[in-house]
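Notes for week 9. Today we move from apo structures to complexes. The key idea is that a small molecule is not decoration. When we ask for a structure prediction with 2-acetamido-2-deoxy-beta-D-glucopyranose present, the ligand SMILES becomes part of the input, just like the chain. The input block below holds both the sequence and the ligand string. Read it once before you look at the output, and try to guess where the molecule might sit.
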Amino acid sequence: MKAFLFTCTLVLWQIAASARSSDQDSQLIPGSLPGGDLNGYSIDYLKSRRARRALPPADEPDGSPVTEEGDASDLPTCLLCVCLTGSVYCEDVSPDMTSVPTLPKETAYLYARFNKIKKISSKDFADTVTLKRIDFTGNQISEIEDGAFSKLTLLEELTLAENRLVKLPMLPAKLTSFNANHNLLKTKGVKANLFKKMTKLVTLYLANNELEAVPHIPDSVRTLHLQNNNITEVNIDTFCRSNDTYYLRPSLNEVRMDGNPVILSKYPDSFTCMKVLPIGRYR
Ligand SMILES: *[C@@H]1O[C@H](CO)[C@@H](O)[C@H](O)[C@H]1NC(C)=O
Ligand SMILES: *[C@@H]1O[C@H](CO)[C@@H](O)[C@H](O)[C@H]1NC(C)=O
C-alpha cells in the first residue's frame, strides 16, 4: 500500500513537472527568433535613417527643431551614426556633425571621418577611456585641447589626417600608429619630445605638413612618412647618436623624405645607424 501511494505521488509529481517545463518551452518559442528580430530591427533602423536623411525636419519632435543646416549634436548619437557592439561609425553624417558626438559607454572604435568637426575638447573623451582606435580623417579640426587624448591609456591608433592642425596635443604613450598627414603642422607646434616616450609606436605619418625639422623618432618606429614638408637639414642626432657609434635602428625600414628642400647626400654620417636610407633628394 505504501509503495502504491508512493508511486502515485511520484507519477503526479512527474506530470506536474513536465507540464511546467512544456509551459516554459512554449513561452520560449516567441522569443527564440533572434535572427528575425534583429533583421527586422536593422531594416527598420536603416529605413528610418534614410528617411531622416531625405526629410530632415519632418519627423523631429517639437522640442528639438532641426533644420537642414541644423547641428547634429541635438540628436542621439546612435540615430545619426551606426552603433555596433563597441564600434561607432559616424561617416559623412547629415545634418552636419561639427563636434565630437557623445559616445556610448564602452566604445572601443570610433570612425568619424568626413564630417565638419572643428575642435576636440578635453571633455569629449572623458567618459570613454575604453577607446582603442579613433579616426577623424577629413574633418576641419584646427584645435585639440592638450588633455583630450592623454587619459586614453588603451588608445592604439589615432588618425587626424586631412584636418587643419597647426600643432599637436599630448598623445597617449601606448599608441602604435599615429597619422597626421595633410595638416598645417609646423615644428614649433610639435613638442620636441612628443613621440619620445611612445615605446610602442610603429607607424608615424606626418607627410604633407610644414615641418622644418625631423621630430625625435622612438626606436620602435618601422615606417616614417615625412614627405612634402619643409625640412631643410638633418644631422647625426636626427636618427643616430653622435656620442654612440654602436647605436643601431634595426626596426626602421621605411623613411620618406621626398618633397623636402633637404639634400640628403650632404649628410652621409646621419644615416650610419640605419639599415635603409631615407627616400628623398640626393643631388
Ligand atoms: C619653408 O622654410 C623657409 C625657411 O627655412 C621659409 O622661408 C618658407 O616660407 C617655408 N615654406 C613654407 C611653405 O612654409
Ligand atoms: C648620449 O647622449 C644622450 C643625450 O644626448 C644621453 O642620454 C646618452 O646616455 C648618451 N650616451 C652615451 C653612450 O654617452
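Residues 157 and 177 are 5 Å apart (CA to CA).
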